[in-house]
From TrEMBL:
Record key words, sorted: Membrane, Transmembrane, Transmembrane helix
Keyword match Membrane: yes
Official protein name in the record: PH domain-containing protein
Transmembrane portions of the chain: 20-44, 51-72
Pfam family name, one: bPH_2
Presence of the UniProt keyword Lipoprotein in the record: no
Ranges of residues in domain YdbS-like PH: 74-137
Record InterPro entries: YdbS-like_PH
Amino acid sequence: MSFIDNNLLASETVIYRARLHWIIFINAALYLLLSVALSVFILLQSEATQGLWYISLLSLALALGSAISSLIRYKTSEFAITNKRVLIKVGFIRRHSLEVLLHKVEGIGVNQSIPGRIFGFGTIIVSGTGGTKETFDLIASPLEFRKQVQAQLS
């Protein structure tokens, strides 16, 4: 069961859930593409040394490590809006969570770069009363997240 589902209050229901955007896998995909290209290049060499093969295997291992890291980050990040709170949890071993009552939310800021606008990801900044500001990067549909918070506040 998810962190959010385990931490719901009595009579609290989830209105909206968000995830990290698939763009977090782009580095792993690029590393994998480069390591496969390197392996093919080495394979085509008639005088490939054992050292080159080790470099090829190392690059494949690094690409796999990057992919696993991105997958863990994707699977362990949760963003939700309930009828009472904004709940956010990121991380597996080193966990960061935020729980803000809706009436304590002053605003949800959204920052999007040009690629973020094209592909639909961005950074949300949750501002609570008392000057609390928490930033969360690479959220899918950040404008929809803000819209759902505003809908619950009105």
